[in-house]
């Protein structure tokens, strides 16, 4: 059976061709590892990377608190069959499908998984092309239908910028609207949603600023390209002590039997409603 899903604050890409990096990844404090068979592996090294991935999953004990995902290749809008076969043998928690532009690739991946013993493997979808943005509603609606198993959208900011011929200045104002569309569709259909990578490994201040932007924009976490980014992402996408304390106070107030009939309360000088109690409980759940 697939494992329970925890937080997805820090989601690290690891090249499937890099045995040392894969061995190290299971000891890192990231919430999720994405073993990458796609962009991180040269075209003539795909077969070797699949073999390394199979060996890694066969020989390495899984960290109980770390979700494991495999990003496969797609060709002409269909999942690569060799990658799919290898992934089913590895039994990851999920498959990440790149450049999803419609629902058919999700359905094709699900058919393959179900026919190959991978019924419990969930699906993630990268939104990184203009058609991916245009077709977000169909992707989300079909993907979250019974039996399909899509539960996370991933923003591919580099490819979005490339495909639209737009720069990515600080703050990403050129694609902010599209990032918001990805978030709102994820929320509408009950999925998690991850922000794209930050490329400049030397610029930790810039990385922190982009994490803060992602938090304010509604993302659950951030995809990462280096282990040095993990701690900062975990902190940025975790509730602060002040926020957690406030949420606990709100939840406790509405759970008090004497307030059972009240729709509005004053907690720490602030007027709160039952919708705030629901938000507080969600925040508390994220922190535990």
Can you characterise this structure?
By secondary structure, the chain is α/β, with parallel strands linked by helices. 44% of the residues lie in helices and 18% in strands. It has twelve helices and twelve strands. It has helices spanning 19-25, 46-59, 81-90, 104-115, 130-134, 136-143, 157-164, 176-188, 204-216, 230-236, 241-255, 274-287; strands spanning 10-15, 32-36, 67-71, 74-75, 78-79, 94-97, 122-127, 150-155, 192-195, 221-224, 264-267, 270-273. The strands form three sheets. The protein has an eight-stranded parallel β-barrel with strand order 1-2-3-6-7-8-9-10, surrounded by six helices. Strands 4-5 form a two-stranded antiparallel sheet. Helix 9 links the parallel strand 9 and strand 10 (221-224). The longest helix is centred in the C-terminal third of the chain and has 15 residues, at 241-255. The chain starts with 9 loop residues before the first strand and ends with a helix. The model has no long low-confidence stretch (mean pLDDT 93).
């Amino acid at each position: 059976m697939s494992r329970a899903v925890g937080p997805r604050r820090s989601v690290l890409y690891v090249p499937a061709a890099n045995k040392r990096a894969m061995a190290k990844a299971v000891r890192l404090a990231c919430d999720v590892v994405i073993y990458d068979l796609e962009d991180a592996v040269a075209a003539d090294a795909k077969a070797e990377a699949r073999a390394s991935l199979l060996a890694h999953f066969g020989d390495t004990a899984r960290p109980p608190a770390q979700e494991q995902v495999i990003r496969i290749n797609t060709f002409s809008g269909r999942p690569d069959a060799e990658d799919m076969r290898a992934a089913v043998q590895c039994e990851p928690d999920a498959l990440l499908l790149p450049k999803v532009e419609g629902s058919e690739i999700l359905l094709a991946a699900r058919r393959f998984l179900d026919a190959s013993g991978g019924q419990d493997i969930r699906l993630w979808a990268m939104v990184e092309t203009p058609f991916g943005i245009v077709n977000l509603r169909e992707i989300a609606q079909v993907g979250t239908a019974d039996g399909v198993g899509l539960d996370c959208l991933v923003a591919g900011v580099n490819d979005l910028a490339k495909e639209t011929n737009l720069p990515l200045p600080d703050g990403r104002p050129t694609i902010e609207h599209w990032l918001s569309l990805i978030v709102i569709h994820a929320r509408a259909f009950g999925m998690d949603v991850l922000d794209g990578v930050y490329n400049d490994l030397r610029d930790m201040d810039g990385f922190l600023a982009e994490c803060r932007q992602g938090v304010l924009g509604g993302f659950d976490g951030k995809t990462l390209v280096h282990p040095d980014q993990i701690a900062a992402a975990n902190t940025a996408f975790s509730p602060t002590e002040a926020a957690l304390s406030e949420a606990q106070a709100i939840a406790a107030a509405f759970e008090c039997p004497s307030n059972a009939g009240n729709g509005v309360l004053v907690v720490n000088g602030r007027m709160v409603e039952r919708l705030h109690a629901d938000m507080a409980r969600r925040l508390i759940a994220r922190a535990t």
